[in-house]
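The material for today's practical consists of a large collection of protein records. Backbone structure tokens are a discrete shorthand for how the chain folds in space. An example says more than a description, so a record of this kind follows:
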Amino acid sequence: MVNRKELNPESSPRAAFGARVRKLREERGWNQHDLAGHVSCSSQHISALETARKPPTLPLSRKLDLAFGIVGTAASFEREWGEMRHGSLLEGFPEYVGLEARAVEIRVFEVGTIPGLLQTPEYAQVLEDSAVHRGAITREQADERTSVLAQRQAALVRARPPMVLVVMDESCIHRQVGGHGVMGAQLDRLVEFAGLPNTALHITPYEIGEHRTFNRLVNLLTLSDYSVVSYVESETQGYLDRELVSVRGMLTAYHQLQAVSLSQAASVGMINKVRKGIP
């Protein structure tokens, strides 16, 4: 007990994790060597975990759950690790990402910025760097977001890729992000996307006015069992919805939006026109 280091669980998620490991261990009358034996690691590793000198990992979190008998509960360390891992992501989004990777059809609507699945690495990095500069997120959170985006895009490249339908407000292609070089390459990427056999791209022009059915990001996934889930978000909250009635209404609104949007050929023409104005 002489060398015991006191922690402030509120100082960081890692400290909170370590403090709870220590608490559960001591409640059982175990020393660090005892717990190390239960999870197949060294007592030095347990000490570093409890004092936040080492971050937890998913395999160790699962072993801790087995050792403490809390597998699959709301208090599980696996769940806490997941919350730490996705700390910069909005509620509901990590689950959405898992479903997106298995979806057979993906529908997306976006206002103001290019949808994530279509962003170039450079375009995405500029957005995250800007958020860091404003103090909205940390550098670590920015790195996590770009990593998750890369994983999402990679998951679409598979033997049987999903059908991806994208409707973008015209503002997405006019808003300059990252300067001429970044924006020019991003517009080129949109044209490439439109040419793929499993995609559709439509621009919603300003002229449709009040007929635009959505005012914020909307994602709709069709899963292999033909069920449909939706994901919407604001600046501070994300919401995953599986309710048939509400999701069906959003699907109808998406179809109505497609009906008043430009055709893919006209959309590509608009993108190319904007692209010509970028040196």
